[in-house]
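ok new one. same drill as before - structure tokens go in, u give me an amino acid for every spot. 683 of them this time. try not to just spam alanines like last time pls lmao
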């Protein structure tokens, strides 16, 4: 069993398509964890195994894949690069000590590279960069390096140089050892590269020397540092974030992979290197515990997957202590005991049973009953808590409609299971429109959720833009009378009311009151009038949207001793209310959202003019680091697709939050259009 000093948990981060999954596959192959090298384009890789991933040739879920190299257990955590699946990236980063940032040698630094770099900075993750796809046309290591240094600083220093590029990419030169790893095993460093190697090596050695007093003294005295000393300085620099080594390779050709694994082992931190683990006790104190197998258990759940057949699969990372198959643990988040069945290591869809998992390691267990993503598993004696991953809030909304009655029956429980698996997915029922609304991070996220509903639970759905919950109200006080009278032989019907309608402040809803004097409407009929008013308020007179912010007061009327009844007064109440609405200069109200957009400064102008076109009222703007925050109020109808609009305006660099603020009158020229389309919708 590997102790945690012999472990590395490394999350792969990049712009979509830079080659994380291919590198993961190449690493598995190089370490002999697999015997056949899969390809993303053929849907045969270990970590992209879900049908939705295979179909699109992209990663959608994170995949922890363990492998062994030089006596060290490495858990690579492959994550998706596509923005819609940011939740998976957050979860993967939560349980890693270090990151491998992948940059494509042809495309260079992309928007997604900058985004993930920002997250890695925030999380203070020590990291390596690999310039991948060195074999591709247009691949250029030095151009890419310049971009990397321009974006992320001069602390990004090559640890290796490539030999050749594109079709001629043959191998790499290890700068510390001054050694060539060529496809031709006997080959030395090409003569033409000697000077380059010297100069890049010098920069690396200088940076490494600066990390420790004894090294810098030796260096300044002109003594050569040994490779071990350079390595020690480098590791210190990487841990403190002062150095980020840059590597080169090709996942597809399998070049540079063993050197990459070597760098992970030599320079990236083990759980031990990160020092004591901070846990929170039930009374809120922070305690420190050693990341070793003998301590009490503390493990955080970072992913849950829903499988219709196997049931729930819970992935967790152990921070201290050990967890055993067929045992009991305490879910400190929920305050409940969990029975642990067979523990396993995951490698894509493969599951390898194990008897225990120790501090530092990552594994999974099936069929836990109460545990959800973010929970901490510990012991009853020490019910410690670890911080949960902080998932991005779902911001993009689509209404979800079952295709058939059978689909409707299964939809609720299936959605619940999927939301359990994906913390960036939320299901809400909009009481105003009656629609079930699916909230997520973007279009692709929700489309794929719909596909999973069908594949995993056999539920077919259609997604559409959610309806806007318009409402209706009046703008002036009015009085309205209605007499309901029918004399059709036998028992007649008679109810007669006078209502006064007044507009109320926004958000008041519909109110009913009475000030009948002299029993003109007998007390026992008043509840019927009230009922009629409330029923009539469900559909207004403009476009049959619900009525709000109106007070109806019954102040007069008359009755008939024989013909009056509850139903007659109810009809009279409803009709008088409708009449009042029509006479009270009715208006449409629309929901206004409070929008907060956070964009790099350069995009401010574009955002403002887009908001302008969306009838927004900008309420404030202030800088926040390199970003500008813009706060505005904007009609909901204009921002149903804001996740997509903002992404295209900023190429994905902008973020936003949005919440309901209040209702406001729809400007007259727009009200007409809304009424017309409502008419069409209902016919
Ligand atoms: N020529 C070349 N192509 C590569 C290399 N690595 C990956 N690719 C190709 O690039 C495409 C994307 O590779 P992936 O491994 O799926 O990239 P990824 O970063 O996992 O992508 P996402 O999961 O969508 O973020 C695939 O077509 C790969 O075959 C490489 O070293 N050389
Ligand atoms: Mg991938």
């Amino acid at each position: 069993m590997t102790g945690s000093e012999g472990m590395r948990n490394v999350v792969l981060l990049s712009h979509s398509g830079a080659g994380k999954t291919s590198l993961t596959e190449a690493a598995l192959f190089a370490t002999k964890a697999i015997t056949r090298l899969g390809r993303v384009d053929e849907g045969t890789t270990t970590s992209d195994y879900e049908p939705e991933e295979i179909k699109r040739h992209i990663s959608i879920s994170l995949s922890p894949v363990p492998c062994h190299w030089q006596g060290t257990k490495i858990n690579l955590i492959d994550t998706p690069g596509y923005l819609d699946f940011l939740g998976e990236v957050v979860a993967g980063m939560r349980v890693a000590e270090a990151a491998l940032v992948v940059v494509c040698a042809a495309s260079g630094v992309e928007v997604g590279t900058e985004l993930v770099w920002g997250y890695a900075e925030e999380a203070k993750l020590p990291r390596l960069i690999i310039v991948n796809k060195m074999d591709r046309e247009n691949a250029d290591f030095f151009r890419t390096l310049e971009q990397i240094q321009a974006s992320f600083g001069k602390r990004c220093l090559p640890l290796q140089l490539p030999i050749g590029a594109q079709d001629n990419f043959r191998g790499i030169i290890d700068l510390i050892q001054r050694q060539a790893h060529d496809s031709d095993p006997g080959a030395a460093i090409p003569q033409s590269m000697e000077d380059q190697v010297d100069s890049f090596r010098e920069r690396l050695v200088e940076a490494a020397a600066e990390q420790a007093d004894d090294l810098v003294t030796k260096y300044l005295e002109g003594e050569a540092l040994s490779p071990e000393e350079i390595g020690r300085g480098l590791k210190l620099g990487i841990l403190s974030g002062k150095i980020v080594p840059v590597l080169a390779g090709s996942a597809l050709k399998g070049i540079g992979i063993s050197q990459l694994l070597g760098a992970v082992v030599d320079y990236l931190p083990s759980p031990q290197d990160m020092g004591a683990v901070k846990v929170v006790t039930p009374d809120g104190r922070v305690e420190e515990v050693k990341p070793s197998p003998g301590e009490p258990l503390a493990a955080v759940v970072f992913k849950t997957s829903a499988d219709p057949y196997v049931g729930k699969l819970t992935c967790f990372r152990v921070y201290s202590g050990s967890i055993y198959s067929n045992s009991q643990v305490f879910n400190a988040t929920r305050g409940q005991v969990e029975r642990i069945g067979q523990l396993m290591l995951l490698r894509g869809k493969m599951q390898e049973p194990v008897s225990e998992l120790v501090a530092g390691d990552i594994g999974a267990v099936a069929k836990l009953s109460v545990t959800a993503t973010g929970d901490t598993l510990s012991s009853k004696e020490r019910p410690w808590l670890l911080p949960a991953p902080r998932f991005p809030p779902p911001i993009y909304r689509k209404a979800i409609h079952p295709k058939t009655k059978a689909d409707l029956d299964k939809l609720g429980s299936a959605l619940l299971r999927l939301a359990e698996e994906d913390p960036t997915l939320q299901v809400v029922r909009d009481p105003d429109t009656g629609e079930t609304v699916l909230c997520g991070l973007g279009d692709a996220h929700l489309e794929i959720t719909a596909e999973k509903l069908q594949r995993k639970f056999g539920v077919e759905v259609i997604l559409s833009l959610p309806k806007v919950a318009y409402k209706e109200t009046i703008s002036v006080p009015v009085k309205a009378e209605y007499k309901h009278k029918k004399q059709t032989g036998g028992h007649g019907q008679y109810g007669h009311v006078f209502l006064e309608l007044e507009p109320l402040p926004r958000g008041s809803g519909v109110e009913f009151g009475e000030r009948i004097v002299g029993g003109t409407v007998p007390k026992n009929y008043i509840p019927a009038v009230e009922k009629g008013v409330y029923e009539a308020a469900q559909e207004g007179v403009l476009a049959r949207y619900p009525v709000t912010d109106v007070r109806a007061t019954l102040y007069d009327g008359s009755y008939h001793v024989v013909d009056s009844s509850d139903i007659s007064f109810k009809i009279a109440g409803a009709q008088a209310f409708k009449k009042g609405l029509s006479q009270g200069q009715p208006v449409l109200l629309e929901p206004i959202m409070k929008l907060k957009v956070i964009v790099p400064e350069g995009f401010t102008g574009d955002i403002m003019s887009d908001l302008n076109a969306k009838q927004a009222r900008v309420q404030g703007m202030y800088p926040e680091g390199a970003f500008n925050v813009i706060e505005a109020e904007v009609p909901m109808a204009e921002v149903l697709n804001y996740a997509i609009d903002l992404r295209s305006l900023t190429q994905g660099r902008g973020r936003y939050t949005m919440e309901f603020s209040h209702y406001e009158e729809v400007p007259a020229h727009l009200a007409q259009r809304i009424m017309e389309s409502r008419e069409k919708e209902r016919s």
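DSSP finds 16 helices and 35 strands in the chain. and btw The chain has a mean pLDDT of 94.
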